Amino acid sequence: MNKKSANYFLSVALIVIVAITIKIYGVEILSFLKNKHEQSLSAVNISDEDKLAKRFNEIFELESKNEFGKIYDLYLSPESKHKISRERYIEKRGALYSQESVLQRLIEYAQQNPEDERSKIFLDDLKKGKIAEVNKVIIKNDIGYIDETSIFDLASKEYPQRIYRKFIKINDEWLIIFNEMPVYCVRDSGYEMPDEFNRALNLIIQRYRQRGDSGITDNLENIKNCLKIEYSESGKAINGAEGVFVFSPSHNLDEYLIKVSPKYSIKDDLLTAVLLRHELTHVFQYANNEDVDSEDGCYRAEASAFISEGRFVYHVLNDEEEKSLESRMTKTQEVAQLFQTLLVIARNEGDLIDEKALNFVKSIPYYQKQCKKE
User: Fold this and answer.
1) Distance from C-alpha of 195 to C-alpha of 230, rounded to nearest angstrom
2) How far, in Å, CA of 239 to CA of 83, rounded?
3) Could you give the residue range(s) of every CATH 3.10.450 domain in the chain?
4) What is the Cα–Cα distance from 8 to 281, expressed in whole angstroms?
5) Cα 249–Cα 252–Cα 255 angle in degrees, nearest 5
6) For residue 256, what are the β-bridge partners?
7) Is 368 helix (H, G, I), strand (E, B) or coil?
8) Among 87-96, 283-292, 301-310, 323-332, where is mean pLDDT lowest?
9) pLDDT score recorded for residue 24
10) What is the pLDDT of residues 246-265, one digit of tens each?
């Protein structure tokens, strides 16, 4: 073999060796880069949740110091700033707090009321550096939600308060979204339930929309996927009631359970809608952290539900639907009871409908037993 041929074969051999080396190490490098990329993606997901929880705590701390202007400047989303001015934001957020530091006010109340169980919980949490509890962090692409239980006001009957806070991620920063209306539900789909309940809910929403009541319509649409409506095993299981909203001690924001008497399985959608309108009032009372636990709060909650039910019948349903119900007054026990109740409330003592309904509820043994506190 001459020198030229030897150089040629040496060159080929070197090329083959280099190619094999590149292939081997290239695969290893690609594998390494893939693993790093997967680890990076995983880190981003964890980082998003951690970042959102951290941002919430930063905002909550500023709220406790009444520094709403700083929240507006640093942490409010651009879209929110287009909807509300800095002055108006400070005014609206400040209306929820006193002029002094909320945190200081909470400490003073707890110290002055050491026997109050809520005071003990608050002081214990304060020692741990916790004045708000993040129950859950929910991230859906660039939208995030904080499921929060906050020590809002120890002296308030609305303690503790569990709500959603909504955020948007812009340039890898979580910014809070200002909502005039509460965020009630973040489920993407509703619970399975008998078709008649879905039809009744749709009827309620449709009638409020036709009436032009966007506030109630939006709230119903917002909470709909978290409504779980089912028949009770028997009328006795719900103490002979037509329907009940089942209060949850843990206040689960993902589920608002309504149980309906099984006799409604043979009723039409219109009558079912009237019943559900009553129970939906209790759902929103609960979702809005209203006082329903005290004796007075219990009575007022029931009075409000009857008022909502009456307004739905006389002012929200169309004329034909109202006439349909009235035509069954002598034929259907539930309809007769409905109109009799509304008539008694209208004729009851009191100057305003709220007072009339409250006096009615307080006169009924069923509610006296339900609302009585030992």
Assistant:
1) 11
2) 48
3) 47-176
4) 90
5) 120
6) 227
7) helix
8) 87-96
9) 47
10) 987 667 889 999 999 999 99
Rounded CA gap, 133 and 146, in Å?
10
| Residues 6+ away with beta carbon under 8 Å from 134 | 53, 56, 57, 146, 147, 148
What's the whole-number average pLDDT of the chain?
83
Provide the 3-class DSSP secondary structure of residue 271. Answer: helix
Quote the pLDDT of residue 100: 47
pLDDT above 50 for 22: no
Q: Pairing between strand 132-140 and 143-150? A: antiparallel
- Give the residue-averaged pLDDT of 94-116: 66
Six-digit token pair at 319?
């004329």
Q: What is the DSSP string of 141-179?
A: TTEEEEEEEE---TTSTT-SEEEEEEEEEETTEEEEPP-
Query: Using CA of residue 93, residue 96, residue 100, residue 106, what is the dihedral sign?
Result: negative
Annotation: CATH topology of 47-176: Nuclear Transport Factor 2; Chain: A, (3.10.450)
Identify the weakest region by mean pLDDT among 79-93, 117-131, 183-197, 356-370: 117-131
Residues 120, 183: Cα–Cα separation, whole Å: 30
Which residue type does 33 have?
Answer: L
Beta strand 227-231 with 243-246 is unpaired
